[in-house]
Amino acid sequence: QVQFVESGGGTVQPGGSLRLSCKYSGSDFSGLKLAWYRRPPGNKRESVATIAKGGGANYRPSVQGRFTISRDNAENMVYLQMDNLKPEDTAVYFCHVEWTDIWGQGTQVTVSP
């Protein structure tokens, strides 16, 4: 069974940084389009960032310039570097293989004074 295992997350103050990581256990990682989603408290899950197999990235406007998605195809890893975090970034974050039902288990990110 293919798994996408997350690590990272935690609680930081506004303006702080966190890095999320996801390890993929399947094959053909380099050919996959990958993404990070989040589910804020009381809200639906929303897309945060995507990265294509060629490395092209897209971001939701509210995180543009603060978050960076990256991938390491040699290690089957995808990352989300989050800088200048704001309270509204508080959510459960999930890594995802686009167009599949493969999701990470979710990790809590809390931004609070």
Describe the protein in words.
- This protein has 113 residues and is mostly beta strands.
- The protein has no helices and ten strands.
- The protein has strands at 4-7, 10-12, 18-24, 34-39, 46-51, 57-59, 67-72, 77-82, 91-97, 107-111.
- The strands form two sheets. Strands 2-10-9-4-5-6 form a six-stranded mixed β-sheet, with no helix packed on it. Strands 1-3-8-7 form a four-stranded antiparallel β-sheet, with no helix packed on it.
- The chain starts with a strand and ends with a strand.
Shape: globular
Task: Report the uncertain regions.
Answer: none
Share of β-strand residues: over 45%
Tell me the number of strands: 10
> How are strands sequenced across the largest beta sheet?
2-10-9-4-5-6
Order of helices and strands: EEEEEEEEEE
Radius of gyration: 13 Å
Distance between the termini: 40 Å
Major sheet summary line: 6 strands, mixed
Compute the average pLDDT.
Answer: 96
Label the structural class.
mainly beta
Fraction in helix: under 10%
Number of helices: 0
